[in-house]
Design brief:
178 residues, six-stranded mixed β-sheet, Leucine-rich repeat, LRR (right-handed beta-alpha superhelix), 5 helices, 15% strand
Amino acid sequence: MPKKWQLSSFSRFSLRALLLAVTLMAVGLAVDRRYRLQQEVIKKLPAGTQVEYHPAVVSAASNWFRGFYRDVDAVSPPCRVTNDVLLLLQRFPRLERLYLPRSGITDEQLPLIARLPRVRRLALWSNQITDEGIAALVRLTRLEVLDVHDTKLTEKSLEHISHIASLRKLIFDFPVTS
């Protein structure tokens, strides 16, 4: 009677190990690609832009791994911000803090900022934004802190700002009568 063909226990282990190795390699390459793309974007930002990073992509990884693979968490350009810069910022998938004081932001640029879905803290003080433009920020569903002092906003802007359900802190300097 012929014996059925079976994989040896060593072969089964080797196939599992191979599958695990290929999976880890694919994940590593994907993380590496994202890291390299972010570094290319950082090089295109205006000189002097401050960039801060999230902790590790993989929190359980060793210290050397955590130090190498980081996602951009905060950006603070030192000068006037153009639409091109705002479009570059969309390449940071985990951008949570955006500091744009005195950067020449106008109402026309606020919809570009609203395309950054993970932003939690946004500083727009000393910019030329108005009550009409601030309505675009309602799309920032995770926004917790908004700093809009020294802008052209008035009490009317509160109507739009009140629709940001996640907002915990609003910093402003316009008078409120009611």
